[in-house]
Amino acid sequence: MTPPTLRILREEHGALSAVLRSMSMLVADARRRAATPDFHALRAMLFYVDEFPEKLHHAKESSLLFPLLRQRSDEAGTVLDKLDRDHAQGEQSIRELEHLLLGWEMLGEPRREVFEQALERYVEFYLEHMRIEESQILPLAQRAFTAEDWARLDLSFRDHRDALAGGEPDSAYRDLFRTIVNTTPAPYGLA
């Protein structure tokens, strides 16, 4: 049986992947049409990445999962160091993207390309980050953790669930999630 923590992590990775790919698709589609994208939708998606994956998802991984894995196994120290560094720079990276998007929205076409390039680098970086977690860290955790370890993690990971990954959204975030779902292409959203 798969521990709930692993299911939650994979669901949150899936939701984040969908949002990242949707941002890329919205920007690429706007370029193809020689139009501006839906800036409101892009801002909502970037805000989501900042509020949930950056602040909650990464915090749970870096403060709970990774330290426990370091205690139970010495196999992944170098990889965990890299992932922790990725988490540490994530908040700055998302702020830069938000600023670049605002620059494009406020100053127009001359700012398009720099945002598009930064977004693609960020999406590639983040997808690779999650691939490493899922292909190396989560399987190692499955082998190394005890039932008691999983029980403790499961309690922590059930709190503050990402609404795009099946959690119940806080009332303050309902409009944000509605915007994302209504502008995200299927199969993840309704657009």
Task: Write the SSE topology.
Elements: H1 4-32, H2 39-72, H3 77-107, H4 112-144, H5 147-158, H6 174-183
- The Cα radius of gyration reads 18 Å
SSE class: mainly alpha
Instruction: Sketch the topology as an H/E string, one letter per element.
Output: HHHHHH
What general outline do the C-alpha atoms trace?
Answer: elongated
Under CATH at level 1, the class stands as Mainly Alpha
The overall average pLDDT, rounded, is 88
Runs with pLDDT <50, length 5+?
none
- The structural domain count equals 1
Q: What fraction strand?
A: under 5%
What is the number of beta strands? Answer: 0
By CATH, the superfamily comes out as nmb1532 protein domain like
Biggest sheet statistics: none
State the helicity in percent bands: over 70%
Question: Gap between N and C termini, in Å?
Answer: 35 Å
- What's the CATH topology name? Four Helix Bundle (Hemerythrin (Met), subunit A)
Helical segment tally? Answer: 6
